[in-house]
Predict the 3D structure of the following.
Amino acid sequence: MLARRFGAQWVLRGVSLELRSGVAAGLVGANGSGKSTLLRLLCTLLRPTAGTASVFGADIASEPDRVRELVGFFSPVPGVYEDLTAMENIRFAATMLGRPAGSAASALERTGLASVANERVRGFSSGMLRRLSLARLLVHRPRLLLLDEPYNNFDAPGTALLNDVIRETLAFGGSALIVVHDVASAMPVVNEWFSLTGGKMSPSAAIPVGSPSPSIIPALGMSGVLH
């Protein structure tokens, strides 16, 4: 069970869930409900005020380096070096992640950035920057995808590519936790739904993958562990 506050304000008040291998879970909620904070806790960018969680057996508090190897965080902030080229950015990421440098070229090719691989990213559009961030995920190949509003600034082909990456992660026994406002784009891949309200998980009904109208499944009363 995880809790987090900023000053006197509690953002998460005891979040508890279990995310199984092969599951893509959609997380919805109003602005300020704690969705992004939860993802930042799970990828070790923040420390919990109380409680803990584990990612495929690695504790986020005591084994942060191991957690970072397992987790890929995709946020609205691209987190790229603007004065480097697209290729230099992805090669640097590959080096930091201990992945083959040659994987950068194939990642840029798949994300449609091969033609601009040697251009500085300072002039990239917001959609191109999203694709560059996705290329970094392709190089990483994490077991747990933590995706914060991932469909923002993606066109239809970009959305389809992102969903393919999610499906591939699940097929190899990984998982995904996806914060979404654009529920329709996530419907083809999400097979469980959760809601955060006032920093707590709230229950609702289950829906199948691809259902035309979303609803929310009950928060699982587990120990705050992501398996």
User: Anything to note?
Assistant: Helices lie at 35-42, 64-70, 86-97, 103-110, 126-140, 156-171, 183-186. Residues 2-80+142-202 form a domain with the Rossmann fold fold (CATH 3.40.50.300). Residues 156-171 form the longest helix (16 residues). Residues 145 and 191 are 15 Å apart (CA to CA).
